[in-house]
Amino acid sequence: MRLHPAAAFGLAFTFLPAVAMAQGKPLPPASTDVMPPIALTITMEDGKPVCAPAELLVPANTNVAMNVTSQANADVTITIPDQFANGLVLHADGDLVHVASEHGYLVKRNGKGTLKLRTEGPGQVKYACTATTNRSQPFTGEYIRKAPAG
User: What does UniProt give as the signal peptide span (predicted)?
Assistant: First the structure.
């Protein structure tokens, strides 16, 4: 059975809303209209990446601008569980590349860039910085989402 091109076109648009809804539900409003800057610096010590600060403190349920600067002589992948899912990454620019697994961002050697993110509710998880040249020894720190004061 062959479909007329117009019928096939109409059929495709019938399923389009279902595909769009599968992308995820809209985020609730941010806790604040202010987008605070967060700084993350990557260096190398003895062939291993070191990310600073080790305790990355961010406001919960808020849009933040994470300014990433790498002084490492290797590409480094930043991973934060569930933070880099499509709906939570608002924008990325500079020397940052979203990795295929959607669990992290690769920062090019000696690169810099900005990740605009929506943080999730209050909580704490481990984050990691892993050099592409030494995957067996990642740096791990704490990613702490704290409820905004007020």
Answer: 1-22
- The strand ranges marked E within the chain are 37-45, 48-52, 55-59, 63-70, 76-79, 89-94, 96-98, 104-107, 112-118, 123-131, 134-146
pTM reported for the whole predicted model: 0.78
pLDDT tens column, 67-124: 999 999 999 999 999 998 768 999 999 999 998 777 899 999 999 999 999 999 999 9
The dihedral sign for the CA sequence 29, 32, 37, 42: negative
Give the separation between CA 146 and CA 45, rounded to whole angstroms.
30
* In a domain? residue 94: yes
Tell whether 41 is covered by a domain: yes
> How many folded domains does the chain comprise?
1
| Beta partners for residue 129, in sequence order | 78, 139
Q: Quick one: how far is CA 67 from the chain centroid?
A: 12
What type of residue sits at position 66?
M
Tokens of 144: 């702490």
Q: Tell me the C-alpha distance between 104 and 78, whole Å.
A: 5
CATH code at 79? 2.60.40.420
Q: Which residue reads 């109409």 in tokens?
A: 10
